[in-house]
Design a protein that fits this description.
Elements: H1 3-22, H2 31-47, E1 71-73, E2 83-84, H3 87-100, E3 108-114, E4 117-124, E5 127-133, E6 139-141, H4 144-147, E7 166-174, H5 177-189, H6 198-206, H7 211-216, E8 220-225, H8 236-245, E9 255-257, H9 260-273, E10 281-288, H10 291-297, E11 307-311, E12 316-328, E13 333-345, E14 348-354, H11 358-364, E15 371-375, E16 383-387, E17 414-416, E18 421-423, H12 431-442, H13 454-462, H14 477-481, H15 488-500, H16 506-512, H17 520-530, H18 533-538, H19 541-545, H20 552-563, H21 565-577, E19 597-601, H22 609-618, E20 622-623, E21 633-636, H23 642-651, E22 655-657, H24 658-664
Parallel strand pairs: 2-11, 19-20, 19-21, 21-22
Antiparallel strand pairs: 1-6, 3-9, 3-10, 4-5, 4-7, 7-8, 10-11, 12-13, 12-15, 13-14, 13-18, 15-16, 17-18
Helix pairs in contact: 1-2, 12-13, 16-17
The structure holds 2-(butylsulfanyl)adenosine (IVH).
Length: 673
């Protein structure tokens, strides 16, 4: 087998193992063996760019290409379903179907209603062609690159699969509970706003411009509907069973029933069982099974007459509000937290619930001592959804209002209108912010000083050993352990780890400073663009927002940070301690691109986009992210973003292909010789 044959073989093998793992839950090989095969395929594909295939299993890891979503019109509109909330409405639906079919016998296919976002997948010649969101029902966003990272969605169907040449299958993209919890755990550490439920998390993820983010967040998908008449089956159930054989994830909960009693049984059974599922469900969908009968019943303008959703009632508990406390986080964000009489809800005891912000407190009109309703409907974080005003005592407790000053340092709070949040602006003098900032600085994704932890930082801070992160670099072994020889070894380890952190890259240093809203990815973008701390610290809001990926809120937070003399001095002290404040020097190859501003767009064969960015700089050129009249040319690969293409045409900016570009800088494009 030569390398090209091996590529084809590995693609099929990996796809088969993928299905064994994600669809059948029966892996034949270990994760490690799987990774080894994947790496072998990646290496071989790197060597043979001419074999590039958008549906290769390697594409499941995502890419940093920005997908400026194109709109795609749905072949059949994506309708929603009528909702019902009680048995009476279910019965009414059943009766409507019965009379609509003139008394003919019919089956109902019962399914779970998955709580994620609808997606339409188009396959052509056994290959995934497009994945489109519901959008406005008529047209949606082309999210194909992101959908490719979902491992339970087949990219290429097997040769022996008897599917039509072209077909559409629809379903729901979901974030499983454990991925959701892990994501929120990470966001809490980074003080980013939490996702209220897996649906919001899945939707935010699928709209991400960076499919590597999507790949990392581990989405899943269940398919439940095949519009169009290419399918051979006479019923919805048969069509989905065929899709299951072709490798799609179809729920085993699907069941055909005939009577209303069976229907109620199904509802009762799944209202309990669904709590054991790995993904969120919020009801049951009932569909007339026969395709002919579906056609007979037809559609209203918004919903099919042959299907309906029954929504489960959200679980609620009633308990007493004892107190509201205000917590101050690392970036000064003040979060109101309700303290309640412990109450049992959906398998856990709930005693605290985030009240999020001042607007929510106001809208609830809360008084201390009130009886409140707590809900966890698809929301893993308990929420107070209302007050039992009838049970409010004759002399209610004081109204809950948002505090005006920081509970930790007394500084007047500032309201951040954009985020509807309050924060304590005393970021250099408020103890939880100071300690939180140091803990953030040492954290794994920042400076990774792993021999220190939150408790040690608290201890050093209380002992007056450190007042800010620059003090870490002044700590001596004897400061930690005194003259106790038995503790010297661990103290030495800490001092060495702190010393080693000076070698961490510039992007990590930016992230480690803990500037509000500047996360890991922003750290990378800023480092790449501004190259050193001197330039970053003097950047204006306009200069910052010009950078792709930096919005106005973040830009203004960065400017505010560097305007504060205390922060400026801190950065200065870190620099004096030897912390890395710049990107490594690029070795110049030539100056053939001197004076040229170049925009990169599309997919390339010989080098990655990051490599091209470096190549441009090594040859004296400037890499810019957006097209303007000042752009010299566009280095254009395949599938260039449509909006960029249009803009280039309008401004008359020349497009330079990959081979031509490599010729300009004197590197040969070996595939085109
Ligand atoms: S069938 C014409 N089946 O619920 C029928 N939808 O409120 C098309 N949903 O937009 C939909 N689980 O995103 C169908 N088993 C299921 C479903 C389901 C969840 C979602 C879907 C749809 C929404 C309707």
């Amino acid at each position: 087998m030569d390398e090209k044959e091996r590529i084809l073989f590995l693609r099929k093998e990996l796809e088969r193992h993928n299905q064994n793992y994600y669809l059948r839950s029966k892996p034949e090989i270990s994760d490690r063996e799987f990774d080894e095969l994947m790496h072998e395929l990646m290496d071989l594909e790197g060597k043979h760019p001419e074999m590039d295939d958008a549906n290769s299993p390697t594409k499941r890891v995502g890419s940093d290409l920005s997908n400026e979503f194109q709109h795609i019109k749905h072949q059949y509109p994506m309708l929603s379903l009528g909702n019902t909330y009680n048995r009476e409405d279910v019965r009414a639906f059943y009766e409507r179907v019965k009379s609509g079919l003139g008394g003919a016998p019919f089956d109902i296919c019962c399914e779970l209603k998955y709580d994620g976002l609808g997606i339409s997948l188009i396959y052509e010649n056994k290959r995934l062609k497009y994945a489109v969101t519901r959008g406005d029902g008529v047209q949606g966003d082309d999210v194909t690159a992101n959908i490719r990272t979902i491992r339970s969605i087949p990219l290429v169907l097997t040769d022996d699969c008897d599917c039509p040449d072209t077909f559409e299958i629809r379903g729901e993209v979901l974030m499983p509970w454990d991925s959701f919890e892990e994501l929120n755990r990470q966001r809490e550490i980074n003080e980013e706003p939490l996702f209220a439920n897996p649906r919001n998390a899945a939707s935010g993820t699928l709209k991400s411009k960076d499919s590597r983010v999507v790949a990392a967040r581990k989405l899943d998908a269940y398919l439940y509907y095949m519009p169009g008449n290419e399918m051979k089956g006479v019923s919805h159930y048969e069509n989905l069973q065929a899709a299951k054989r072709w490798g799609f994830k179809i729920s085993d909960a699907m069941k055909r029933i005939k009577t209303l009693e069976e229907l109620y049984e199904y509802i009762d059974f799944w209202d309990v069982e669904r709590k054991k599922l790995p993904v969120a469900t919020d009801g049951i969908v009932l569909k007339v099974d026969s395709i002919a009968q579906q056609e007979q019943l037809g559609y209203t303008s918004k919903t099919p007459r042959w299907a309906i959703a029954y929504k489960f009632e959200a679980e609620k508990a009633r308990t007493q509000l004892l107190d509201v406390v205000f917590q101050v986080g690392r970036t000064g964000n003040v979060t109101p937290v309700a303290v309640m009489e412990p109450v049992w809800l959906c398998g856990t005891t709930v005693k605290r619930a985030s009240l999020h912000n001042a607007d929510i407190i106001r809208s609830l009109n809360l008084h201390l001592g009130d009886y409140v309703f707590v809900e966890k409907a698809g929301e893993i974080i308990p929420q107070i959804v209302g007050v039992d005003t009838e049970a409010r005592s004759f002399m209610p407790g004081p109204e809950v209002t948002f505090i005006k000053t920081c509970p930790e340092c007394g500084t007047p709070l500032v309201r951040d209108e954009g985020m509807a949040a309050h924060y304590c602006p005393n970021d250099t003098g408020c103890p939880p912010q100071i300690k939180g900032k140091i803990v953030h600085y040492i954290s794994r994704d920042a400076m990774n000083i792993d021999s220190l932890g939150a408790e040690t930082i608290e201890d050093y801070y209380n002992r007056g050993l450190i007042k800010d992160v620059s003090d870490l670099y002044k700590i001596k072994i004897t400061d930690i352990c005194g003259y106790d020889r038995s503790r010297e070894k661990s103290a030495r380890k800490i001092v060495n780890a702190i010393e080693k952190s000076k070698q961490q890259s510039f992007d990590r240093v930016i992230y480690a400073l803990g500037i509000r809203y500047v996360g890991k990815v922003a750290g990378k973008i800023l480092a790449q663009h501004f190259k050193n701390m001197e330039r970053l610290s003097h950047a204006t809001i306009d200069e910052l927002t010009e950078v792709e990926g930096i919005g106005e809120i973040m830009a203004s937070s960065i400017v505010t940070y560097f305007n504060n003399p205390i922060n400026k001095e801190l950065v200065q002290r870190l620099q004096e301690c030897g912390v890395c404040m710049e990107m490594p020097e690029v070795e110049m190859q030539s100056n053939v691109l001197e004076g040229k501003s170049i925009v990169i767009s599309g997919v390339f064969q010989s080098h990655s986009r990051e490599e091209y960015k470096a190549i441009i700089e090594m040859n004296g050129g400037k890499n810019v992210s957006s097209i303007s009249s000042k752009t010299s040319f566009i280095l254009a690969g395949e599938n260039m973003g449509p909006s960029k293409y249009e803009k280039a045409q309008k401004l008359g900016i020349p497009l330079v292909g990959e081979a031509e570009f490599l010729g300009m800088i004197g590197e040969k494009d070996e595939d085109n010789l």
